[in-house]
């Protein structure tokens, strides 16, 4: 599972669509997720990853708009859209394969 999480984080960053801070928030969410669900305190996350609360709130809004996750039930509970995550990883794998073919 940790290998899958690591590949997902690498794939997300490779998209090149999100800032370093947004990628840091994504990484933190992935690290604490269980069965695609993450429950956390914005204050605690802010302290843990050294990113301001407003940046985390804005990043969550961006991720929701982009279909990466959605709020589920209680405040602070989010669920990843597994289809979107699968697509990100598959695109990343193809990018790696394409790059390795070019090197040959």
Write structural notes for this entry.
- The structure is a single chain.
- This protein is mainly alpha-helical and 104 residues long.
- The chain has a single domain (2-99), classed as Winged helix-like DNA-binding domain superfamily/Winged helix DNA-binding domain (Arc Repressor Mutant, subunit A).
- It is built from five helices and three strands, in the order ααβααββα.
- A three-stranded antiparallel sheet has the order 1-3-2.
- The longest helix has 22 residues, at 82-103.
Summarize this structure as a short list of keywords or feature phrases.
mainly alpha; Arc Repressor Mutant, subunit A; 104 residues; 3 strands; three-stranded antiparallel beta sheet
Number of helices: 5
**Alpha-carbon distance between the two ends:** 31 Å
General shape: globular
The major sheet is characterized as: 3 strands, antiparallel
Could you state the order of secondary-structure elements as H and E?
Answer: HHEHHEEH
The average pLDDT is 90
CATH C-level class is: Mainly Alpha
The named CATH superfamily = Winged helix-like DNA-binding domain superfamily/Winged helix DNA-binding domain
CATH architecture: Orthogonal Bundle
Flag low-confidence runs. Answer: none
Q: What is the name of the CATH topology?
A: Arc Repressor Mutant, subunit A
> What class would the helix/strand composition place it in?
mainly alpha
Radius of gyration: 14 Å
- Count all strands and give the number: 3
- Please state how the strands of the largest beta sheet are arranged side by side: 1-3-2
Q: List the domain count as a whole number.
A: 1
Tell me roughly what share of residues is in helical segments: 55-70%
In terms of DSSP E residues, the strand content is 5-15%
